Amino acid sequence: MVPEGRSAWRGRSVAAIVGVLGVAALATGCGSSGGQAAADAADGRGGGAGGFPATVTDCEGRRTTFSEAPRKIVTSNAASLEMLLRLGAGDRVVGTGFPPGKGTLPPELDARAQRVPVLGKTVIPKEKLLGSGADVYIDTFASMGMMGGAATGPTEEEFAAAGIKHVYLASTACAPRKKVPQRDLSAVEADIRRLGQVTGTSHRAGRLVAEMEKKVSSVRAALADVPAAKRPSYFFFDFDAGTKQPVAVCNRQVANAVLTEAGARNIFADCASDFQPVSWEDVVAKNPDWIQLGVRNRGSAAATGKAFDKAEKFLKEFPATAGLRAVREGKFLRIGSEQTTIAGVGNADTVRRIAATLYPDRLAEPGADR
What we know:
The protein is of the alpha/beta class. The chain has 2 domains: 13-212, Nitrogenase molybdenum iron protein domain (Rossmann fold, 3-Layer(aba) Sandwich), CATH 3.40.50.1980; 227-358, Rossmann fold, CATH 3.40.50.1980. The protein contains 16 helices and 13 strands. It has helices at 9-22, 33-43, 78-87, 107-114, 126-130, 156-161, 170-173, 186-199, 202-223, 254-261, 280-286, 301-317, 319-322, 325-328, 338-341, 346-358, and strands at 54-57, 63-66, 73-75, 93-97, 118-120, 136-139, 165-168, 233-238, 247-249, 265-266, 275-277, 290-294, 332-333. The strands form 4 sheets. The protein has a 5-stranded parallel beta sheet with strand order 5-4-3-6-7. The protein has a 4-stranded parallel beta sheet with strand order 10-8-12-13. A two-stranded antiparallel sheet has the order 1-2. Strand 4, helix 4 (107-114) and strand 5 form a beta-alpha-beta unit. Helix 9 (202-223) packs parallel to helix 16 (346-358). It is globular and about 55 Å long. The protein starts with 8 loop residues before the first helix and ends in a 12-residue tail after the last helix. The model is unreliable at 1-49 and 144-151 (pLDDT under 50).
């Protein structure tokens, strides 16, 4: 069998990350408009100080200060859009790139997300972003460096001239240059708190983070006495990156934190990057105990299920992987790419789902604690 895929990893990587980062299909939503008003008042948007001035730093350590909450926000993709919806600031988003596909967000979020103007189906064109009238741009991609758009993205001077403050999701945008691996969700939680600071919704951000930490802490407690060497090896198979050459999630990627918290050993945890092309020989040499079928949400359960089927079929029929221990024993996890590789509230749920699969005698079935 000849594996399918694009001719070069960067092309495959762009397509995969576009799909993955363009859809944030996570599990829980925000409240009603009445709850929104109450939350805004509690967070200070009703006329109080709201924690301002608030100062945040970017990947280079540059400081940006907000004297008040922004009124017009543009998001680079559906990941940052989803965070803002959960924080109760979605009504201030005036545009996004990489929009979520219809139906890929929970109903209580989806309708609101679909009303957000789409400034770019992928990367927002430079001129459109600078002319958007936004007060702030929430950037998941670090000027699109991995996406091939760095040359056309605005400079910091151009953002300043347009009156747009540039804020990053550090857990993803700054990941490639981190000096240490991501082994827990602290960077993701910090992103949520940072957006809470910027938008004046810190109280709600604190609640979201507390809910995440409660879920992850229960897993840590259940696995506390399992030695690192005894934890099962795990391969995140990024099916949407193509099958000609596999793309590994490395130790700077959010997924490494998710897998580590779930009690798994990422077989590419020695890779000091976020994503990196590897070979099938590398995967075979590591012979993982479990394989996650990394498939993005296709917009419906049926379509997504077919994509999972296709990913599993490939691993079973491709000669290089057919003999892997996980493939022979059918140890596959069907958990979407978005909840694993994108920073968000859903990362904590993914930790719980993976851990419950790998350690069924220690944890209840996935969803039992929701």
